[in-house]
Amino acid sequence: MSRPRVKNGDTVMDKTHLVDEITGHRRMRRNRKADWVRRMVQENRLTVDDLIWPIFITHGTGISEPLAAMPGVNRMSVDKAVEAVKEAADLGIPAIAPFPDIEMDLRDPTGSHILDANNLMNRFIRETKKAVPNIGLITDVALDPFTSHGHDGILRDGIIVNDETVDHVVKAAVMQADAGADIIAPSEMMDGRIGAIRRGLDAAGHQDVGIMSYATKFSSGFYGPYREAINTGGLLKGDKNSYYISPANGTEAMRDAALDVEEGADMMMIKPGLPYLDICWRIKEAFGLPTYAYQVSGEYAQIKAAAMNGWIDGDRVMMETLLCFKRAGCDGILTYFAVDVARKLGRT
Ligand SMILES: NCc1[nH]cc(CCC(=O)O)c1CC(=O)O
């Protein structure tokens, strides 16, 4: 009787080893043994088409200022931001998502400045559309950059009032579409907003403007650095638990997402990203809509901080996290790493 002999690297396996005959026939490592076969069996890939770049814009001109908690990310005035967007388009990044840092004295309890056709956001949209027509503009309509209390809606007697906020949000969405926004991405999690925005856009002749729903936005500690970037951190009283979803609730998140689909969302987004990959998978499986994850500011900061301490290989973890979103069913990722990744992919 000849004994089973399996060549595994330099070792000739035989019955002196503990791997049994049956296990010995099922060797996962055959498909991992060399770079060429690893490439053949690779199931998911990250490409530049998967990247959406969130950027912070501020008032003034000639400004590009670093953000302490987001090393490598700058807050830019419109002129500088448009230059940066041009570069992103040249790298092949399909779309950007701007967030405005509104002047403090323009903020008020109802966020009324969001309804100014000439506010920072709308000016940026117009300038970018003109200068870089081939990049997609995905714009948020939440009130938080515009309110004096940092909440995403109108605050009355300690409560964020839903329906009045939605009226504001719809008007703001139409104005952003008038300015040239391609996709409206409402992040304020008010009930009924997707249907209301759809009707508002259609009534204004913007049938072609899409809606990417922040379908499941969780009440998360990972938004910290973003609040520094648009200067809402110091303003915010209390928390956003009365409108964002609890991190404990996956089934509730699915119900919320289902309503957005019914109301006419074209695309879905999950935010934050990495701690919520189960939700990404469930949403993609359940609805089959184009689905995106937002790798938020705190996720970016974590990776950068650990990398700067020499505790992890920052580039490697950046690429790994983004690939994991693809494996979890996402069609793309909003990530502050977008330009770095596009450059890296362009080189390989
Ligand atoms: N409408 C609020 C909004 N828009 C984008 C982010 C977070 C983005 C990030 O952390 O990168 C938030 C969260 C918040 O402040 O509650």
UniProtKB/TrEMBL annotation:
Gene Ontology BP terms:
protoporphyrinogen IX biosynthetic process
State the EC number(s).
4.2.1.24
Q: Quote a single Gene Ontology cellular component term.
A: cytosol
* Active site positions, chain numbering: 217, 271
Provide the coiled-coil residue spans.
none
Q: Which keywords has UniProt assigned to this entry?
A: Heme biosynthesis, Lyase, Porphyrin biosynthesis
Reaction(s) catalysed by this chain, per the record, are: 2 5-aminolevulinate = porphobilinogen + 2 H2O + H(+)
Per its UniProt entry, which superkingdom is the organism in?
Bacteria
Q: Which GO terms describe its molecular function?
A: porphobilinogen synthase activity; zinc ion binding
The pathway to which it is assigned is: Porphyrin-containing compound metabolism; protoporphyrin-IX biosynthesis; coproporphyrinogen-III from 5-aminolevulinate: step 1/4
Question: Which residues are listed as membrane-spanning?
Answer: none
Quote the Pfam families the UniProt record gives: ALAD
Gene3D superfamilies in the record, alphabetically? Aldolase class I
* PANTHER family xrefs: DELTA-AMINOLEVULINIC ACID DEHYDRATASE
- What family is reported? Belongs to the ALAD family.
- Describe its assembly: Homooctamer.
Q: Which NCBIfam families match?
A: PRK09283.1
Return the protein name.
Answer: Delta-aminolevulinic acid dehydratase
**Organism (species):** Aliirhizobium smilacinae
